[in-house]
Task: structure prediction
Amino acid sequence: MSDCIFCKIAEGGIPAEIVYEDDQVVAFQDLNPQAPVHILVIPRKHIPTTNDLREEDAELMGRLHLVAKEIAMKEGIAEAGYRTVLNCNAQAGQTVFHIHLHLLGGRPMGWPPG
Ligand code: 5GP
Ligand code: ZN
Result:
């Protein structure tokens, strides 16, 4: 099994509170939530960062956003608003190198982000 913690979560090797999964995408509760709703939406495919995206990943990345939208609607935050974030590399604060879309909501969000 891969050393990647998010691959392990997607494969069921590490427990997580999964809120959605299909053959390409998994979504689960963030371990250290930064907002009342903080869910990570990941592809099953191991892609380390946004810098590693290829043309063939275009549809997959669109799917991450569609799943995030569906979850936002289920969580009841869609109308009030929410934020989706991809952190890429050190200056953006990326700590897990398996691409993940943060879905944050349930409170007002500051801008610009820190
Ligand atoms: P990053 O800073 O890389 O954009 O975000 C990584 C996110 O993954 C953080 O919000 C962190 O709390 C979350 N995280 C790290 N390890 C785990 C884990 O083992 N399980 C879950 N559910 N979330 C994790
Ligand atoms: Zn991975």
